[in-house]
Amino acid sequence: MVVALAPCLSRVVSFRYLMTLKEDDEACRHALKSGTLLLYHELAPLLRQSRPLFAVTNVELGKGKELIREAVLLGCRETGVPQFALDVGESTAQNRNTQLCNGVFTDLRKAFFLLTEPEASLAGQALLRWHQTHGFCSATGQPTVRNQSGSQRVCPNSGVTYYPQMAPVVIVLVSDGSRCLLARQRSFPTGMYSALAGFCDLGETLEEALRRELAEEVGLEAEDLRYSASQHWPFPQSSFMVACHATVSPHKTQVSGAELEDARWCSLEEIQAALTIRKPPHNPEAQPPGFWIPPAYAVANRLIQEWPFVILPVVPSSKPYPW
Ligand SMILES: NC(=O)C1=CN([C@@H]2O[C@H](COP(=O)(O)OP(=O)(O)OC[C@H]3O[C@@H](n4cnc5c(N)ncnc54)[C@H](OP(=O)(O)O)[C@@H]3O)[C@@H](O)[C@H]2O)C=CC1
Ligand SMILES: [Mg+2]
């Protein structure tokens, strides 16, 4: 009994500690002295061997203590050590830090396919980018002021508080019972196919957004829906991805050329072959005909991985939230 409760308790303690750091600037400044830092340079994280590199906070940063104050709070390790993200910006110190920590500032989009444990790098980049782009109040045009943890910004003139935002996106893997539907946009890397996705419109439920996107992009009507998972997705801006499976009756797709370059029904064998491709081919043009799918961290990959094992429940589609 005690063994089962201990991890729960430590998680509660760690969430409460995080809450304190968000609300209490002095406590957060104090925590900066003992926490670890994920460094960025122009939003490119410091990585070593495809892993984010957490430096100790007393690392020499050129501008010293003042620069450390610009760090944003990311989370708290199970050990109770708080984690921060900091962009060293145009500081000339980045080279020194790179040598000191034996890491390399790496473009996150390029590193993404190779990165193990990308969550902290992605969240840190998204939060730092939000601060860089929300320096002014949209009501008064005056500069906004951040709290120490970076969980909010306030306009001293209007009193408006701004919080980091995510746009809700529904992503759906459609199945006709024996095949699943993958599609590609023109902007995708050559040969990559993914599940269908789309931003929710204001006032829509997820289910309505899913049905609209299916109709718009491939001319299909969803029957049964099943929630699978969710994730934060930082490209190109922060989205909150909600991933679902959907069934449709076997039907011809009508691909919208405005939205998609191509959509293809894939058999189990084709999916199994695509899952064996762990990273994008060096020269996709030279590869034999086939396709590859988003990397393991992307929730689209999870939908595709679990598709063969998903047995969709029969849910009356009139219910607004069948899952
Ligand atoms: N994690 C994963 O596994 C995957 C993630 N995704 C992500 O899902 C997201 C949505 O997919 P996508 O098919 O592009 O979406 P949509 O099908 O909704 O099409 C994108 C277009 O919608 C318009 N749009 C409407 N609302 C917004 C908004 N809040 N932010 C940005 N654009 C908006 C834009 O049009 P306009 O430019 O004309 O204004 C944009 O070009 C993308 O960010 C993509 O990176 C996609 C697949 C897999
Ligand atoms: Mg789309």
TrEMBL record:
Its cofactor is Mg(2+). Residues 164-288 form the Nudix hydrolase domain. PROSITE patterns: NUDIX, NUDIX_BOX. The keyword Metal-binding applies. It is an enzyme of class 3 (hydrolase). It comes from the Eukaryota. One of its GO terms (molecular function) is hydrolase activity. It catalyses: NADPH + H2O = reduced beta-nicotinamide D-ribonucleotide + adenosine 2',5'-bisphosphate + 2 H(+); NAD(+) + H2O = beta-nicotinamide D-ribonucleotide + AMP + 2 H(+); NADH + H2O = reduced beta-nicotinamide D-ribonucleotide + AMP + 2 H(+). Its EC number is 3.6.1.22. InterPro entries: NADH_PPase-like_N, NudC-like_C, NUDIX_hydrolase-like_dom_sf, NUDIX_hydrolase_CS, NUDIX_hydrolase_dom, Znr_NADH_PPase. Pfam families: NUDIX (PF00293), NUDIX-like (PF09296), Zn_ribbon_NUD (PF09297). Keywords: Hydrolase, Magnesium, Metal-binding, NAD. This is NAD(+) diphosphatase. It comes from Electrophorus electricus.
